[in-house]
Amino acid sequence: MNDTPVIAIVDDDMSVRRSLHRLLPAAGHPVETFTSAREFLEWLPHHRAACLVLDVHMHEMSGFELQERLAVPVIFITSHDDAPTRDRIEKSGVAGHLWKPFDEQAVVDAIRRAVETKVP
Q1: Residue 62 near residue 38 (C-beta atoms within 8 A)
Q2: Element (H, E) at 19
Q3: Structural Rg of the chain based on CA atoms
């Protein structure tokens, strides 16, 4: 097992993965990116995630479904600014959430807060 905790990015949008993969190491965070929840779950048994930046709406498994299976701080990111999504995010207990497009500093700040969060 690799014990170095990383920030895991799970988003089916390549441009989001690419931009966060460039941004976060510059802010001092090691990063791994994944195109799907399934890909992340295959990686997880052998690695540690300090925080998960997770797209809400993805194919196969939604961010909400993945979050329910994990004991790691989650930051949801989404471009779906509709009432049902906002309501579900608010009730999900995540460490933070951001609407796409998001400000780079907002991502760094949300990750800092999430990494400091203690998950039961």
Answers
A1: no
A2: helix 14-26
A3: 13
Q: How many CA atoms lie within 13 A of 15 on its CB side?
A: 3
Query: At 106, phi and psi to the nearest 5?
Result: -65, -40
pLDDT in tens, 5-64: 899 999 999 999 999 999 999 989 999 999 999 999 999 999 999 999 999 999 899 999
Helix, strand, coil shares of the chain, percent, nearest 5, are: 45, 20, 35
Residue 55 in tokens: 């797209």
Give the whole-angstrom CA distance, residue 17 versus residue 13: 7
Strand partners, 97: 76
